[in-house]
Amino acid sequence: MPGVWEESSSPSRPTPSRIRPRGGAWRRPTSCSGSLSPPDPGGRLNLAFIVGTAGSGKSELTGALTRWLELQGEDVLAVNLDPGAIVLPYPANVDVRDYIRVENIMEEYSLGPNGGLVLACDLMVEIVDQLASDLNDFSPDIALVDTPGQMELFAFRDIGARIAEGLTDEQKGIIYLFDSTFCRDPLNYVMNMFIASAINNRFLLPQISVLSKADLLREEELEEISGWCEDPALLEDAINRRLTGLNRLISQDMMMVINRLGIDFSPMPVSTRTNLGFNRLYAEMSRVFVGGEPFTQ
């Protein structure tokens, strides 16, 4: 029946009308067209999806950068796409948990944490129109989108690309986080470059790379990683000096593939504790999204 969410005929897959939002009451989406076409935003909305491995600091960056951009006079809001988040370090203006919560999926369908999270993320595609409508209610100039902690659920399943397409047809981009605590090792740094390359190929969107939690690095560690960013020969030298056996061969092969793709990754160091690098990140976001102009005129 048009305009009504039907109860699922299969006990293994709930429909959004059966998903308990915050507050315990059922919230029924206002549309069930199933279309991924968002409403006309009526303005220039820029979406930056913040993506990175688990624990890389996505939520912290979303909160800190939202507050910092507000201080610059930008019309910005934060979007949470993690249905498993319990506490967020920012007030989410648009929140998937208004419609889907992992703990309710786990309880109703007798699933563990991983199964509940997978099902919850798959269900997000059915409410993308409603999320797009919620986003348009605010009509921001830029929205920072905090993606699920388990990166693969958003980045390497169909749901991620469909949500990215469905939230808006305006300008979109990705901020990929290189976790500095893992990038001290050249093997992990190259693996991050490889993952970033895969995400770039998956979404085909403008992509900005940042080295998150830079304040946790010693000065010499930050200088070494910065050197790897600026001069691939220094990274190759570190691979040859510090890695052996299969790890060295794998790193060398991944470097060859990345070089062949022609993608340049130079993650800029940022810190949510000190706001290190926020001016540079803001400038790069402005260049990518609006040609170097402020987002809010």
Summarize the structure.
The protein is of the alpha/beta class and 297 residues long. It contains 11 helices and 7 strands.
Strand content: 5-15%
Shape assignment: globular
Euclidean distance between termini CA atoms: 44 Å
Mean pLDDT: 85
Number of domains: 1
Would you report the number of β strands? 7
Instruction: Work out the helix count.
Output: 11
Contiguous low-pLDDT stretches (5 residues minimum) are 1-43
Share of helix, binned: 40-55%
**If you compute it from the alpha carbons, what radius of gyration comes out, rounded to the nearest whole angstrom?**
20 Å
Sketch the major β-sheet: 7 strands, parallel
N-to-C series of helices and strands:
EHEEHHHEHHEHEHHHEH
CATH topology: Rossmann fold
Query: What is the CATH architecture assignment?
Result: 3-Layer(aba) Sandwich
Task: Note the main attributes of this structure.
alpha/beta, Rossmann fold, 11 helices, disordered N terminus
Q: How do the helices and strands line up, and which of them pair or pack?
A:
Blueprint: E1 46-52, H1 58-71, E2 76-80, E3 94-95, H2 102-109, H3 113-123, H4 128-138, E4 142-146, H5 151-155, H6 158-167, E5 172-179, H7 186-203, E6 207-212, H8 219-230, H9 232-242, H10 245-261, E7 268-269, H11 278-290
Parallel strand pairs: 1-4, 1-5, 2-3, 2-4, 5-6, 6-7
Helix pairs in contact: 2-3, 7-10, 8-9, 9-10
